[in-house]
C-alpha cells in the first residue's frame, strides 16, 4: 500500500483537483484506492459524492481504532474501486500549530489498521493483491497550511506531490512544501520522498505562466513534472457534476485526464521501486538550486 499526500502551502492552487484527478485515474486503471479527505473544507468528500457515515476522519484522529475507521470509510459515488475516509469541518480541531509526536502519529496508526483485516473492511480486500492490503493506493488531500493535519499526512505518507500554479508566489510556496517534506524526513519518516512538483492552471501562450514555469524548472530541476495541468473549465464542470474528469468527454477534460494518467504512472513506478527496495522514480532528495 503506497500512501501519497497532495500538498500545497499556498491556497487556491488546485490541490484537491490533483487529489481527485489522481483518484479518478487510479479507478480508471483498476487500482483500488482510498482517498483520505484531511482538509476541513471537505471538498473531496463532496466531489466524490460519498454515502453517509456515522464517523469522519475527525473521529479517527480522536480515536484511531479499527472500529472508528470502519465507520468513517464510505464508498465513493464514482463507483467501484474508490473509497473515501470522509472529511468534515470538525477536523479543524486537530490542526494544532504545535502538535505532540503522539498527535502526529494518529493518522499513520489509523492507516496501519487497514492491513489488520479481521473483518475491518469485509470484501474491500482484493484477493488479486495477494490478500495483504485492502488498498493499493491511499491519497491524502491535505489542507493548505502546515499545521498538525498536514504534518500528520507527511508523517504517514511515502510520497508527496507538491502542487503549485504558475504565479509569482509559486516558487516560495513550493520551497516551503519541499522544506516541510525534508523536515518530516528528519523527524523520523525516512520513507517520505517528494514524487514531484505538479504545475496546475496553466494557460497556453501566457507569457507570465511560461516565465514562472521556466523559473520553477530552473530552481527545482527534474522534480518538476513534465506534464502540466491546463486551466480548463471542464475540470470545474466535472467536479460540479460529482464525476471524475476521466468521464467528462470534452477536449479540455481529455487533456487534463492525460496528465493524471502520467502522474499515476509515476506513482505506480514509485510503488514498485519501494516494494523492490530500489531507488524511487522521483527526483533525488536535494535542496533546490538557488540564484
From TrEMBL:
InterPro entries: AAA_dom, DNA_Partitioning_ATPase, P-loop_NTPase. Residues 3-193 form the AAA domain. SUPFAM superfamilies: P-loop containing nucleoside triphosphate hydrolases. CDD domains: ParAB_family (cd02042). This is Cellulose biosynthesis protein BcsQ.
Amino acid at each position: 500500500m503506497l500512501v501519497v499526500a497532495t500538498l500545497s502551502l499556498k491556497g487556491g492552487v488546485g490541490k484537491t483537483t490533483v487529489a481527485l484527478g489522481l483518484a479518478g485515474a487510479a479507478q480508471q486503471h483498476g487500482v483500488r484506492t482510498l482517498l483520505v479527505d484531511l482538509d476541513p473544507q471537505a471538498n473531496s468528500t463532496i466531489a466524490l459524492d460519498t454515502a453517509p457515515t456515522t464517523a469522519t476522519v475527525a473521529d479517527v484522529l480522536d480515536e484511531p481504532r479499527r472500529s472508528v475507521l470502519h465507520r468513517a470509510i464510505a464508498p465513493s459515488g464514482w463507483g467501484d474501486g474508490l473509497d473515501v475516509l470522509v472529511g468534515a469541518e470538525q477536523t479543524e480541531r486537530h490542526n494544532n500549530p504545535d502538535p505532540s509526536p503522539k498527535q502526529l502519529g494518529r493518522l499513520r496508526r489509523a492507516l496501519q489498521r487497514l492491513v489488520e483485516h479481521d473483518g475491518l473492511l469485509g470484501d474491500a480486500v482484493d484477493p488479486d493483491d495477494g490478500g495483504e492490503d485492502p488498498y493499493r493506493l491511499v491519497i491524502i488531500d491535505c489542507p493548505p497550511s502546515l499545521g498538525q493535519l498536514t504534518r500528520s499526512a507527511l508523517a504517514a505518507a511515502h510520497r508527496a506531490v507538491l502542487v503549485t500554479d504558475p504565479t509569482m508566489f509559486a516558487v516560495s510556496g513550493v520551497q516551503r512544501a519541499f522544506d516541510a517534506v525534508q523536515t518530516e524526513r528528519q523527524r523520523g519518516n525516512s520513507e517520505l520522498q517528494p514524487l514531484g512538483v505538479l504545475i496546475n492552471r496553466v494557460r497556453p501562450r501566457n507569457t507570465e505562466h511560461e516565465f514562472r514555469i521556466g523559473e520553477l524548472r530552473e530552481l527545482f530541476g527534474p522534480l518538476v513534472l513534465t506534464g502540466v495541468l491546463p486551466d480548463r473549465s471542464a475540470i470545474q464542470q466535472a467536479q460540479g457534476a460529482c464525476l471524475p474528469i476521466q468521464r467528462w468527454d470534452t477536449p479540455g477534460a481529455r487533456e487534463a485526464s492525460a496528465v493524471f494518467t502520467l502522474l499515476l504512472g509515476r506513482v505506480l513506478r514509485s510503488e514498485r521501486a519501494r516494494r523492490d527496495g530500489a531507488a524511487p522514480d522521483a527526483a533525488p532528495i536535494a535542496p533546490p538550486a538557488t540564484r
